[in-house]
Amino acid sequence: MSRQPRTQNVTTDAGEARITWVPAAAPRRVLAVSHGAGGGIEARDLQALAAALPGHGVTVALVEQPWRVAGKKVAPAPKTLDTGWRGLWPALAAPGLPVIAGGRSAGARVACRTATELGAAAVLALSFPLHPPGRPEKSRADELLGTGVPTLVVQGGNDPFGKPGEFPPGSYTLAEVPHGDHGFAVPKRSGLTEEQAMGILTEAVTGWLTSLG
């Protein structure tokens, strides 16, 4: 049986960040996931993972970047996001377990950019923003292709920041949530409920984590 979530504030060079730990009873690894540039850890995908993974031996660390903790509405530059993530890493690694770096959207980019440097065991990229909407020529594929560790991308089928078919070949794994938008919301006409969409996402992540050994 999992223990109750707890919060931990961490001082970084970008300001004070916060981790909400959702512990597994007998954890084998930590999945650290941060939010995107337009929301927080209440995002449906992050909450679904926090609910599902502790039962599979994965402690989930929901990371709030300093700008969110400070109550700001707009995310800072990527370099500042990386600084906040680096400052959090010692706390994430403190349990002495392999840490999988993850995040959604802007948080996924941070995880990709810093994975090798920080010694992440793997990367989970949720709704990776391959390009700005309508600007496929502004590709961020290099960030994804350069993680240097096992990587899973979970992408909505209708994500305007990059549909699954737009992703370049690479050594990463790609899983699709059919009909999902950038926040994995699915339209009623799709025949999928939000619960089913989140089930597809959590099953993909759970299966991938199992494959890591």
From TrEMBL:
Top-level taxon of the source organism: Bacteria
GO molecular function, one term: hydrolase activity
Sorted UniProt keywords: Hydrolase
Entry annotated with the keyword Hydrolase: yes
InterPro entries hit by this protein: AB_hydrolase_fold (IPR029058), KANL3/Tex30_Abhydrolase (IPR046879), NSL3/Tex30 (IPR026555)
Occurrences of domain KANL3/Tex30 alpha/beta hydrolase-like (ranges): 29-207
Name under which the protein is recorded: Hydrolase SCO5215, alpha/beta fold family
Taxonomic source organism: Streptomyces globisporus
